[in-house]
Write a structure and sequence with these properties.
- With 426 residues, the chain is mostly beta strands.
- The chain has three domains: 105 residues, Immunoglobulins (Immunoglobulin-like); 102 residues, Immunoglobulin-like (Sandwich); 112 residues, Jelly Rolls.
- The protein is built from two helices and 28 strands.
């Protein structure tokens, strides 16, 4: 064999972010001058340095090669044992190359960071917060999450209470804060609290948060109740005034009887007084007949108008309320086509009254008809965006017409809407 190598220490321990060294004795066993190249194999090659990288040795000459292991202080290099190998390749005798194997042990270190979203929740009954715990260290370990408030006015529910953290990952913990007491009206109350992440062999992480509690009855309820009460009183006054008015007959005064005897015939008994003549009744009968005839004409025309034709277009509205920061793709808001004939969607009127940021897709089943940026819809709060598909989709009963919304707001929900116009297919 042209070369021999001896690793003086086969096990090396190094701290993350530090450095450790070991040496290898190289000897040229051949009778000629030879050049040797040193290469490190294994997952340690990215943070291992060989000095020198190559040497020229006379016959039976020796040289010491130094290996420096310097793992970075990141979660990418896990704590524990990492095997390595040093390959010594000969230029004159490639088949006579040798390999020396060893083990590098990286010591564990702990580095945890945490943040809560939202910092302040606005609610009447319970506030929902999400705690993100990042394990920036190089080994797995557990932490404990607790929450306290200085005034003892809140109760907390934490899930999970003691999560296990994988290196290089973020773990999400749900923190639910509920007030112990509610109130019906008045100004909002700020209830501060503190979330603590207890890390083994390290200082605990303390995060401040708050719950902004609103009254159970909103302020605008009293204004709305006052307006409704005033309208009710006004309706009562109007109805009472109309009912107190004297009714007026539309048939005119009753016909007056014409006496057939002279005023001097006072001896005629009351029973002999002539009955009022019906000679004047033809005009009343004519009026009655005319009224009946007019009513019949209105009924017939109304029936004819109802049967003259039927509507061939229909509309329906899809309103969305998509929340920001929700993973798993866009949030879907669908309309199920009811039983009946089929229709073709001819146009869609998109509105974005709150000037939200994000993206909305118009879908028919799994087919995407259009993708629209919410920033291009309703910029001034009044104009709507009208979309007319090139090939109007044919929708049948039971199929879905969907608005898929991806909300890009910082905190508030996106509330776009679409008014769909569909034509009847005969």
């Amino acid at each position: 064999m042209a070369v021999s190598a001896m690793l003086r220490s086969t096990a090396v321990t190094v701290a993350a972010g530090g450095a450790a060294r070991c040496h290898v004795l190289i000897r040229n066993n051949s009778a000629v001058v030879d050049q040797f190249v040193f290469t490190v194999r294994g997952d340690v090659d990215d943070w291992t340095e060989v000095k020198p990288g190559r040497v020229n040795l006379m016959p039976h000459q020796e040289v010491t090669v130094e290996l420096t292991f310097a793992p970075p202080r990141t979660s990418e290099v896990l704590a524990g044992e990492h095997p390595f190998a040093l390959q010594v390749a000969s230029r004159e005798d490639p088949a006579g190359s040798v390999v020396q194997e060893g083990m590098v042990t990286v010591e564990p270190f702990t580095d945890v960071d945490a943040g809560i979203v939202p910092v302040t929740s606005y609610t009447r009954r319970k506030g929902r917060h999400t705690l993100a715990v990042d394990n920036l260290g190089n080994h797995q370990h557990g932490v404990e999450v607790t929450a306290t408030d200085p005034d003892n006015r809140l109760t907390f529910k934490i899930r999970p209470h003691a999560p296990r953290l994988e290196p290089g990952t973020a773990t999400f913990v749900r923190v639910l804060a509920r007030p112990k007491k509610y109130f019906w009206k008045g100004p909002n109350r700020i209830l501060p609290f503190q979330v603590k992440v207890i890390v083994p062999a390290s200082e605990p992480i303390e995060i401040d948060a708050a719950l902004d509690q609103s009254p159970l009855i909103p302020r605008r309820f009293f204004w709305l109740f006052s307006i409704l009460l005033a309208l009710l009183l006004l309706i009562v006054v109007i109805v009472t005034t109309l009912l107190r008015q004297r009714p007026v007959s539309i048939a005119g005064p009753a016909p007056t009887a014409t006496p057939t005897s002279t005023p001097s015939s006072s001896s005629v008994p009351p029973s002999s007084t002539p009955v009022p003549s019906t000679a004047g009744s033809p005009s009343g009968a004519a009026r009655a007949a005319g009224a009946t005839g007019a009513g019949g004409a209105d009924n017939s025309s109304g029936g004819g108008g109802g049967g003259a034709g039927s509507a061939v277009n229909t509309t329906f509205t899809i309103r969305a309320q998509a929340f920001p920061g929700v993973g798993g793709g866009p949030q879907l808001f669908s309309y199920v086509v009811p039983p009946g004939p089929r229709h073709r969607v001819t146009s869609v009127v998109l509105r974005n009254p709150a000037a939200d940021v994000g993206q909305v897709q118009i879908r028919h089943g799994t087919r995407v008809l259009a993708t629209v940026d919410l920033a291009d819809v309703d910029r001034d709060g009044t104009d709507a965006l009208v979309f007319r598909p090139t090939q109007a989709p044919l929708v049948a009963p039971g199929e879905l017409v969907t608005l898929a919304v991806t909300c890009g707001n910082a905190r508030d929900a996106c509330t776009p809407s679409g008014v769909f116009t569909a034509a009847l297919v005969r």
